[in-house]
Amino acid sequence: MSQVTVTEHLLLHQKRTPDATGRFTQLLHDLIISAKLIARSVSKAGLLDVLGETGEINVQGEQVQKLDEYANRVLIHRMERSGALCIMATEENADIIPVSDRFGQGDYIFIFDPLDGSSNIDVNVNVGTIFSIHKRLYGSHPDPGISDVLQPGSKQVAAGYFLYGPATMMVYTTGQGVNGFTLDPSVGEFLLSHPNIMIPETGKIYSVNEGNYALWDSKTRKAVDYFKGTKNRRGHPYSLRYVGSLVADFHRTLLYGGIFAYPKSYKNPERGEGKLRLLCEASPLSFVAEQAGGRATDGAGRILDIEPGHLHERVPLFIGSKNDVDDVMRFLA
Ligand code: AHM
Ligand code: MG
Q1: Which residues' Cβ are closer than 6 Å to ligand 1?
Q2: What is the domain partition of the chain in residue ranges?
């Protein structure tokens, strides 16, 4: 592993950016500290009696677990201190969170899923934090508001995730490729372990919750059957891997190639919809995927081109190797 720390990497980026004020670097610095705090708690989850549910239901109608709440609180409090933000939005809160000017205000928007895959914590399986960063729109609105948050993913200035697995990793992009860092716990630093990540053009793995097969439309079934069959590009069935933690499933897809899918399903027949959230899950990972040479679509078009209608919008997601996603598009078109 290289000796380049994420801090050195960020400073290099700052030096190469004309007119950089250092605010963005400060923002990422506070994000990294938050992730270290979350990683520490996740690794002690079984020991600290933080396991289990609080009994509350979040805005998405799901059970909130204690570590979700902790991660959410850490990020909100720590990121406010960065002085770089004007608004935050999190999967766990119904509304946007305006940032007070107690620590100064900047023009960045920070959107995040504090602890994705949290239903896996009780069984000691990987979870992650996903983040998306935009710049505020200066236009007709004097004050920053919801319209600054509802920007298409193509406008992101940075995005990425932390994976709390056997090792803690940070993978992110600022639109100039994708780099991965691994936390060395002995020195407490993220070291550059995966420079300039590129997704293989075609993979060998498909990743989808196939338990939903009966709830998919026929086009989706045909697309998934294609990867399981022998009439695909490989002439051989793809292997199936599905963790059920988006960050873990995406991270494997990024490194090994293949396709991750969460199609729309018809549990509610009136409105077949995806499960994953556009702003805090699909959009940031799509930015990473494209920057690594991959693709991401909702079946109709590019995820990054979707104009969000509301804060907690959900979308179908097909993401991964260029050729595998293109093949899915042929079925869904
Ligand atoms: P979460 O953000 O509430 O944890 O939910 C999102 C998770 C993703 O990590 C994962 O890809 C998906 O839900 C798994 O859903 P399912 O259990 O329906 O397969
Ligand atoms: Mg979540």
Answers
A1: 62, 91, 113, 116-119, 209, 244-246, 249, 262, 275
A2: 6-194, 205-332
